[in-house]
TrEMBL record:
Keyword vocabulary terms for this entry: Amino-acid biosynthesis, Metal-binding, Methionine biosynthesis, Methyltransferase, Repeat, Transferase, Zinc
Residue ranges annotated for the Cobalamin-independent methionine synthase MetE C-terminal/archaeal domain, each copy included: 450-771
Protein name: 5-methyltetrahydropteroyltriglutamate--homocysteine methyltransferase
Entry's Gene Ontology BP terms: methionine biosynthetic process; methylation
Binding site for Zn(2+): H665, C667, E689, C750
Binding site for L-homocysteine: I455, G456, S457, E508, D623
Top-tier EC class: transferase
Cofactor(s), by name: Zn(2+)
C-alpha cells in the first residue's frame, strides 16, 4: 500500500478544553441552569474552539488536534460516535440533553459510572456495552470540528479514542442495561470482562474504517487514534487484537495517514506489534515511559514510520530541559523514519498558561511551563530539528539559565527536614502491636459497641462560601473570619451531639480543598491562582505545585480541632490528609523520586498529629482516598509503589502514643489490588467506601487477615436519597457477618460536604438509630 504521506514536525496530542478562563464550564453550567439556550451554548463553544485553533496555529504547530473539544468527556463522546449510549437515555429526544443525561443523570435516569482515566486525576464516563448494543457510526461532531478547522485553513488532525482502548475502558452489562442492577453485577475495568468485550471489535472496527474514509474525504491528512490502553499489560490474545485491528484500519482505501497515540507509559510488546502494521505513525511517551529512547532502537520497522516523540511532559508543569530533549530526539533520528516533536500526552492535564498567575515570583515562574509554554517548547525543539540547533540558541540559553537557577535555589533543600528524615530509623514508622494499642485506646475513649462517626466534612453552607470570599477580597479581617468558622464548627458539633453520634468531627468548614488547605501552609508548595485543570465534566481543580522541600511552618489544624473539642466531652477527631493523597492531587517535583517527597510530606503530617495529641485530641484521622489512584499501570511496578505509599502513611501516623487512635479513610475505588496495602497501613480504624459494593470489601479484608477496626460505609453519600433505618440495619447485619462487633464502626461512605443540610440531618439520624437497634440486639 503505497501512499504519499505528508509529515509534520510540531504538534501536541491534545489541549485543555474548558476555556482559558473556564468559559466553557460557565456556559455549560448556565445551560443546565436554564439561563442560556442551546444556540448560545453552541456559539460560545464554537468561538472558543476557533480561537484556540488559531492560537495553536500561530504558536507554530503544523498539525493541530481537532475533535478533542468536549461538552463533558471524550470517552462519552466516543460512545456517541459509535452509537453506544445506554438504552435508558434513548427516549430523550434532544441530542444534547441525552448526552448530558448519560453524563450526569436526571430525575429518572442513572448516569454512567465515572472512574479515573488511567493513573491521572481526570475522570471519564464508563460506557456500558450490553449484548444488545448495536453500534452505529455518528461522525457529525468530529466531521463538524474538522470542517471548522479546514475553513480556517488549519492543518487539522482529527483525534478519536481507539477501538482497543474504548472497549477496554467500557464495562459489559447485562442485556437490560438498567444502570442500578448492572452496577452490582460487574465493576468496570476488570480484566476478565474487558477481555471479553474485545470480541466486540468485529462490530466497531468497520465503523472506525468508515470513519477513516469519511475523514479522508473531508480533507484530513492525518488522524490520531488514541490507544493509551496499549501501555498496560496486555495478553498475547489482546496483542493479536491490536495487530488485526490496525492491519484492518491500515487497509482502508482513501484513509488519512494514521497516527496511533500511546501515552502514560511504555508500549512494551505493543510497540513491536504496532510497528509491524501499516500504520504511518506512532506517538510515544518519552517522559512516563521508562524504557526510554534506546528501547526504540531495537524496532527496525520504525524506520518507515513517523515517530511523534513525546519529549515535553504533558502532565507536569516543569520547564523542559531542552538540551536533554534534543539529545533524545537526536538518538531517535537514528531509529525512526521521521520524527515530530510533541507533548508526552494531551495537555488536558495542565493549566492553560502561566500568563494568568500574578503571584509567582520570577524565579519560580522561570522554572515552569503550563500549556501555552509547553506548546512554545515543542515548536522550539521542532525548529532545532528542521533548521539546526543554532537557530534556537537564544531559547536554549534561556532554558539552561532557568534550569540552573532552579537547581541552585535554596528552597529546594531544607537541611533540617533532611537531617530529621535521615535520623529516623525503621522503628519510627512502627507502632506497638495493634492489640496493645486497642487496650489503651478503649480505656481512654470509652466508646459503646458499634461506635458511630462521620468522615469529616459537613455541608459547605452558603455562609461558609460567603465568609471565604469576603476574606479573600479583604472585606472581613482574619478575626472575623475565624469567628464565622467557629460558629459553623459550633453548629456542626451541636448537631452531632443532638443526633447522638459517638465520635465527632469539626466539619472542615475552613478547607477549600483537602489538599490545597495543607499545601498552602507548607513551605515548598505554591498554590496557583488560576491553574485550573478539568477533573470531570465542568468540575475543575487547581492542583498546588510542590517545588521544594516540605516544611510545616506552624500547626495547621490544631486551633480548629481544639475549638471543636472545647465544645463537647465526646472525642473530636483531628482531620488530616495523608501524604499519598497530598502528592496525588498536586503537581510534584521531577527533581527527586516521589517516595522522597512522600517522606517529607509524611514528616509534616506526623508533626501535626503529635501537636494534636499534645493539645488533648484523642483520635486523629489521616485520609488516603487517593491510595489506589497512584497505582502504576503495569503489574511489575505495583509492589514498589505500594511499599513506599504504605511506609509514608506509617511514618505520618506512628509519632503518636499507643493511646491515640489513628483512623484512615479510603474511597473512590475498587480496593482489590490495594487490599494488602490497606492492612499494611495499620490504622486502628479504617472507614471505607462500601455501600455501593454491598460490603464485599470486608470479605476481601478478611482474606488478608485484617483484624483492625473498620467502618464500611453504610450508605452512599453520592446520592441525595435518605437511607431508611431498616436498610442501614440490613447493611450492619451484612457487615456483622464479616466483622465481629468489637471491630465494627458505623459511618457513611464519605464526607458530607456536597450534600444538603436537611438530607444529612435525616440520614445521620437514621444511621444513629440503626446503630442503637443493632447494638441492643448484640
Ligand atoms: N475528610 C474528608 C471529608 O470528609 C475526606 C474526603 C474524601 O474522602 N475525599 O470531606
Ligand atoms: Zn471519601
Amino acid at each position: 500500500m503505497e501512499k504519499h504521506t505528508v509529515t509534520f514536525s510540531a504538534t501536541v496530542l491534545g489541549t485543555p478544553r474548558t476555556g482559558p478562563r473556564r468559559e466553557l464550564k460557565r456556559a455549560i453550567e448556565s445551560y443546565w441552569a436554564g439561563t442560556i439556550d442551546q444556540v448560545e451554548l453552541a456559539s460560545i463553544a464554537r468561538t472558543l474552539r476557533e480561537q484556540h485553533l488559531i492560537e495553536l496555529r500561530d504558536a507554530g504547530l503544523d498539525s493541530i488536534p481537532v475533535g478533542t473539544f468536549s461538552y463533558y468527556d471524550h470517552v462519552l463522546d466516543t460512545a456517541v460516535l459509535l452509537g453506544a449510549l445506554p438504552e435508558r437515555v434513548a427516549g430523550i429526544a434532544d441530542e444534547l440533553d441525552r448526552y448530558f443525561a448519560a453524563a450526569r443523570g436526571d430525575a429518572t435516569v442513572t448516569p454512567l459510572e465515572m472512574t479515573k482515566w488511567f493513573d491521572t486525576n481526570y475522570h471519564y464516563l464508563v460506557p456500558e456495552i450490553t449484548p444488545d448494543t448495536t453500534f452505529a457510526l455518528a461522525p457529525e461532531k468530529l466531521l463538524g470540528e474538522l470542517a471548522e478547522a479546514v475553513a480556517l485553513g488549519i492543518s487539522a488532525r482529527p483525534v478519536v479514542v481507539g477501538p482497543i482502548t474504548f472497549l477496554k475502558l467500557s464495562k459489559a452489562v447485562g442485556s437490560s442495561g438498567s444502570g442500578a442492577e448492572s452496577e452490582s453485577e460487574s465493576e468496570s475495568g476488570s480484566e476478565s470482562e474487558s477481555g471479553s468485550l474485545l470480541d466486540r471489535l468485529d462490530e466497531i472496527v468497520p465503523l472506525y474504517a468508515d470513519l477513516l474514509a469519511q475523514l479522508g474525504a473531508a480533507g484530513a491528512e492525518w488522524v490520531q487514534i488514541d490507544e493509551p490502553a496499549l501501555v498496560t499489560d496486555l495478553t498475547a490474545a489482546e496483542l493479536d487484537y491490536v495487530r488485526s485491528t490496525y492491519d484492518r484500519l491500515a487497509a482502508v482505501t482513501g484513509r488519512p495517514s494514521i497516527l496511533v497515540a500511546s501515552y502514560f507509559g511504555d508500549l512494551g510488546a505493543a510497540l513491536h506489534v504496532l510497528a509491524g502494521t501499516a500504520v504511518d505513525g506512532i506517538a510515544i511517551d518519552l517522559i512516563a515511559g521508562t524504557g526510554g529512547v534506546d528501547s526504540l532502537a531495537g524496532v527496525p520497522a520504525l524506520a518507515n514510520k513517523l515517530v511523534v516523540a513525546g519529549v515535553v511532559d504533558g502532565r507536569n508543569v516543569w520547564r523542559t530541559d531542552l538540551d536533554a530533549a534534543l539529545s533524545t530526539l537526536g538518538t531517535l533520528l537514528g531509529s525512526a523514519g521521521t520524527v515530530a516533536v510533541s507533548t508526552s500526552c494531551s495537555l488536558l492535564h495542565v493549566p492553560y498558561t502561566l500568563d494568568v498567575e500574578p503571584d509567582l515570583d520570577d524565579n519560580l515562574r522561570s522554572w515552569l511551563a503550563f500549556g501555552a509554554e509547553k506548546i512554545a517548547e515543542v515548536t522550539v525543539l521542532a525548529r532545532a530539528l528542521r533548521n539546526g540547533v543554532e537557530t534556537v540558541s537564544a531559547e536554549l540559553a534561556t532554558a539552561r539559565d532557568a534550569l540552573a537557577n532552579r537547581r541552585s535555589d535554596p528552597r529546594l533543600h531544607n537541611t533540617t527536614v533532611r537531617a530529621r528524615l535521615d535520623a529516623l530509623g525503621p522503628d519510627s514508622s512502627r507502632r506497638a502491636p495493634a492489640a496493645e494499642r486497642r487496650v489503651k485506646q478503649s480505656e481512654r475513649l470509652d466508646l459503646p459497641a458499634l461506635p458511630t462517626t462521620t468522615i469529616g466534612s459537613y455541608p459547605q453552607t452558603s455562609q461558609i462560601r460567603i465568609a471565604r470570599a469576603a476574606r479573600r477580597k479583604g472585606e472581613i479581617d482574619e478575626a472575623e473570619y475565624v469567628r464565622r468558622m467557629q460558629s459553623e464548627i459550633a453548629d456542626v458539633v451541636a448537631l452531632q451531639e443532638k443526633l447522638g453520634l459517638d465520635v465527632l468531627v469539626h466539619g472542615e468548614p475552613e478547607r477549600n480543598d483537602m489538599v490545597q488547605y495543607f499545601a498552602e501552609q507548607f513551605d515548598g508548595y505554591f498554590a496557583t491562582a488560576n491553574g485550573w485543570v478539568q477533573s470531570y465534566g465542568t468540575r475543575c481543580v487547581r492542583p498546588p505545585i510542590l517545588y521544594g522541600d516540605v516544611v510545616r511552618r506552624n500547626p495547621m489544624t490544631v486551633e480548629w480541632i481544639t475549638y471543636a473539642q472545647s465544645l463537647t466531652s465526646k472525642p473530636v477527631k483531628g482531620m488530616l490528609t495523608g501524604p499519598v493523597t497530598i502528592l496525588a492531587w498536586s503537581f510534584v517535583r521531577d527533581d527527586q523520586p516521589l517516595p522522597d517527597s512522600a517522606r517529607q510530606v509524611a514528616l509534616a503530617i506526623r508533626d501535626e498529629t503529635v501537636d494534636l495529641q499534645a493539645s488533648g485530641i484523642r483520635i486523629v484521622q489521616v485520609d488516603e482516598p487517593a491510595l489506589r489512584e497512584l497505582l502504576p499501570l503495569r503489574a511489575a511496578d505495583k509492589q514498589a509503589y505500594l511499599d513506599w505509599a504504605v511506609e509514608a502513611f506509617r511514618l505520618a501516623t506512628s509519632g503518636v502514643s499507643d493511646a491515640t487512635q489513628i483512623h484512615t479513610h479510603l474511597c473512590y475505588s475498587e480496593f482489590g489490588e490495594v487490599i494488602d496495602a490497606i492492612a499494611g497501613l495499620d490504622a486502628d480504624v479504617t472507614s471505607i467506601e462500601a455501600a455501593r459494593s454491598h460490603m464485599e470489601v470486608l470479605d476481601d479484608l478478611n482474606a488478608v487477615g485484617f483484624d483492625l477496626g473498620v467502618g464500611p460505609g453504610v450508605y452512599d453519600i453520592h446520592s441525595p436519597r435518605v437511607p431508611s433505618i431498616e436498610e442501614i440495619v440490613v447493611s450492619l447485619h451484612a457487615a456483622l457477618k464479616a466483622v465481629p462487633a468489637e471491630r465494627l464502626w458505623v459511618n457513611p461512605d464519605c464526607g458530607l460536604k456536597t450534600r444538603g443540610a436537611e438530607e444529612v440531618g435525616a440520614s445521620l439520624h437514621n444511621l444513629v438509630e440503626a446503630a442503637i437497634l443493632v447494638r441492643a440486639a448484640l
